[in-house]
């Protein structure tokens, strides 16, 4: 496969290129128009095409004679449950749930929030929505009520689909009290709350009025057929951290996304229909949408729903057990997971227990993977560990390697090369393209390829300001990068105030709002500092109000608890350090990058705009004192 030629065609002859790729999926009406613009002059793909995502994922394979192939494997070490579903069995569950949603009055264009754990019913709910044109928003199960409220009030769902509980290792997290609190706080009142009762042994949950039982709804409903939706019809909304603190509702289309996912499974991941593909991600993240649900099912791969963790469920060999037991061919996870396994099993003893003969490739994304972790993986697992890079906004890889024919070259610490369709440049602040080995902003010439975001739900101004206003005619990724002489790209990290904790993007400005709400805090700065396990973790520096005599230990304890309650434990804020003052520019802007550099103990240049250089020494002494 000539990947250079493929890439050139995707940029120079993009409409023909993507028309060919669109033929790889089955349309109800094949598009005559390949590329156009919406009313805001933003590019959109295949606008006059019609299709249905659930049909592509399920019904098509049954029509093609693969109804008895296993579509879904559910493996839950936290409950000891295992279950498989063929494509035919999955269709029965999905079509009846879709019929149930329709019986409650949901129809094409309505929205539904799905707040559920890693169980098959979450996937069924996503596909049931897609089947009847309902736009879903999956929220990470266990997210705090405040996070649920933001999403409910923004997308105004006609239904909220949830479960009685989720399980984090050995801890049961009841969802209904969280849902009840969110419903109470939300301005928009949700008409239908559908609850899947997991019937766990310690199933003590407070039911409240107005709930619909998921299983009863499925049992009494007639199956619904797939409806045709236009290519540009939103399949889902997925909220991602924004620099203003309020999450952005990234909106995904149907036809462009389906085309891009089919292309990804074939060319990037190089996985054949019928093989088992496993993305170890929560459904609530972009990876869970694209590569636990839609991508593998479009490609007729068996997908795995894993309700567990890389370690402690029961040990650091659980990934290798899954790969061995279900003959996983290609896997995708975050470097954090591999680092956690490496920490627990440094000599790879647990790997030896399992037959990994079917395992061909390990893909990594979500954060930069350190070389030591890649070395460990290569030594003990013995299959290629392939880093790649993308965003919630893109929905599929932007930088990576085309691995389908095995003729690819990994460069350590690089995420790969631009993927076909992504015309990537490295610019400086003035919009000038940089030479090789110079760090700048990673930007992409418009149009973005199929599969990328349609926009931000109900907020075109914010969409334009966040992504399109920095460089005219280009998409601004918010990441820094370096390109080498061979075209390989090295991602250097976020350039805004979003940090990446174990593959989860979290807004430091949202955390700052919470930290600064503490009665003793005058001002604060939250930055992401380097962490061996999670890539980055947040660290708060706070200035106390005059007259406050609260101890550092107590304020740290209180702030950590508040952030957990308002965002969730995923935020991982554990460090709060009090300082006399924060370093600022002469115009009063907090120098967050300087704080981060000092906390990481890295070399730094004194910013020319700093209002008082003496503060650097003050903070260095404070860090030494705090860490001792």
Automatic annotation (TrEMBL):
<dbReference type="Pfam" id="PF16177">
    <property type="entry name" value="ACAS_N"/>
</dbReference>
<protein>
    <submittedName>
        <fullName>Propionyl-CoA synthetase</fullName>
    </submittedName>
</protein>
<dbReference type="InterPro" id="IPR032387">
    <property type="entry name" value="ACAS_N"/>
</dbReference>
<comment type="similarity">
    <text>Belongs to the ATP-dependent AMP-binding enzyme family.</text>
</comment>
<feature type="domain" description="AMP-binding enzyme C-terminal">
    <location>
        <begin position="510"/>
        <end position="589"/>
    </location>
</feature>
<dbReference type="InterPro" id="IPR042099">
    <property type="entry name" value="ANL_N_sf"/>
</dbReference>
<dbReference type="InterPro" id="IPR045851">
    <property type="entry name" value="AMP-bd_C_sf"/>
</dbReference>
<feature type="domain" description="AMP-dependent synthetase/ligase">
    <location>
        <begin position="66"/>
        <end position="447"/>
    </location>
</feature>
<dbReference type="Pfam" id="PF00501">
    <property type="entry name" value="AMP-binding"/>
</dbReference>
<dbReference type="Pfam" id="PF13193">
    <property type="entry name" value="AMP-binding_C"/>
</dbReference>
<dbReference type="InterPro" id="IPR025110">
    <property type="entry name" value="AMP-bd_C"/>
</dbReference>
<dbReference type="InterPro" id="IPR000873">
    <property type="entry name" value="AMP-dep_synth/lig_dom"/>
</dbReference>
<dbReference type="GO" id="GO:0050218">
    <property type="term" value="F:propionate-CoA ligase activity"/>
</dbReference>
<feature type="domain" description="Acetyl-coenzyme A synthetase N-terminal">
    <location>
        <begin position="4"/>
        <end position="57"/>
    </location>
</feature>
<dbReference type="InterPro" id="IPR020845">
    <property type="entry name" value="AMP-binding_CS"/>
</dbReference>
């Amino acid at each position: 496969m000539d990947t250079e030629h493929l890439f050139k065609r995707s940029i120079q002859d993009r409409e023909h290129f993507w028309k060919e790729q669109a033929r790889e999926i089955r349309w109800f009406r094949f598009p005559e128009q390949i590329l156009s613009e919406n009313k805001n002059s933003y590019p959109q793909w295949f606008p006059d095409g019609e299709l249905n995502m659930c049909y592509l994922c399920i019904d098509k394979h049954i029509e093609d004679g693969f109804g008895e192939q296993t579509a879904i494997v559910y493996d839950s070490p936290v409950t000891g449950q295992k279950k498989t579903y063929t494509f035919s069995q999955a269709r029965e569950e999905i079509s009846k749930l879709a019929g149930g949603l329709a019986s409650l009055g949901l129809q094409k264009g309505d929205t539904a929030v799905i707040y559920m754990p890693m169980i098959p019913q979450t996937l069924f709910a996503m596909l049931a929505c897609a089947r009847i044109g309902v736009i879903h928003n999956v929220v990470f199960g266990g997210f705090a009520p405040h996070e649920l409220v933001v999403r409910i009030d923004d997308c105004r769902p006609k239904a909220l689909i949830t479960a009685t509980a989720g399980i984090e290792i050995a801890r049961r997290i009841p969802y209904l009290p969280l849902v009840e609190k969110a419903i109470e706080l939300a301005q928009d009142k949700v008409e239908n709350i559908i609850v899947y009762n997991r019937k766990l042994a310690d199933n003590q949950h407070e039911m409240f009025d107005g709930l619909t039982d998921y299983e009863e709804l499925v049992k009494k409903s007639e199956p619904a057929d797939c409806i045709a939706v236009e290519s540009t019809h939103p399949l889902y909304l997925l909220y991602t951290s924004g620099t203003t603190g309020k999450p952005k509702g990234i909106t995904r289309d149907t036809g462009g996304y389906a085309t891009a996912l089919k292309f990804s499974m074939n060319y990037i991941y190089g996985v054949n229909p019928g093989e088992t593909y496993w993305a170890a991600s929560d459904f609530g993240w972009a990876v869970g949408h694209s590569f636990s649900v839609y991508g593998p099912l479009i490609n007729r791969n068996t997908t795995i729903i894993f309700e567990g963790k890389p370690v402690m469920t029961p040990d650091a060999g659980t990934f290798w057990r899954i790969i061995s037991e279900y003959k996983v061919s290609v896997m995708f996870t975050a470097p954090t997971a591999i680092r956690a396994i490496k920490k627990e099993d440094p000599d790879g003893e647990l790997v030896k227990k399992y037959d990994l003969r079917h395992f061909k490739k390990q893909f990594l994304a979500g954060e930069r993977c350190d070389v030591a972790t890649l070395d460990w993986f290569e030594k003990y697992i013995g299959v290629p560990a392939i880093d790649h890079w993308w965003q919630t906004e893109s929905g599929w890889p932007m930088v990576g390697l085309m691995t389908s024919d095995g003729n690819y070259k990994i460069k350590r610490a690089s995420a790969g090369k631009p993927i076909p369709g992504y015309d990537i440049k490295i610019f400086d602040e003035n919009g000038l393209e940089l030479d090789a080995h110079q760090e700048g902003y990673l930007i992409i010439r418009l149009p973005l390829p199929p599969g990328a975001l349609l926009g931000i739900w109900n907020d075109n101004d914010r969409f334009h300001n966040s992504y399109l206003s920095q460089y005219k005619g280009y998409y601004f990724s918010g990441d820094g990068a370096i390109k080498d002489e061979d075209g390989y790209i090295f991602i250097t990290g976020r350039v805004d105030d979003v940090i990446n904790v174990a593959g989860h993007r979290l807004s430091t400005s949202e955390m700052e709002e919470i930290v600064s709400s503490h009665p003793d805090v005058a001002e604060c700065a939250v930055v992401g500092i380097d962490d061996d396990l999670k890539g980055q973790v947040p660290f708060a520096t706070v200035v106390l109000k005059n007259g406050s005599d609260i101890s550092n230990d107590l304020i740290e304890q209180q702030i950590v608890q508040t952030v957990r309650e308002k965002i969730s434990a995923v935020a991982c804020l554990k460090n709060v350090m009090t300082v006399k003052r924060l370093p600022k520019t002469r115009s009063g802007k907090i120098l967050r990058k300087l704080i981060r550099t000092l906390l990481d103990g890295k070399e730094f240049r004194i910013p020319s705009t700093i209002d008082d250089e003496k503060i650097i020494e003050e903070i260095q002494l404070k860090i030494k004192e705090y860490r001792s």
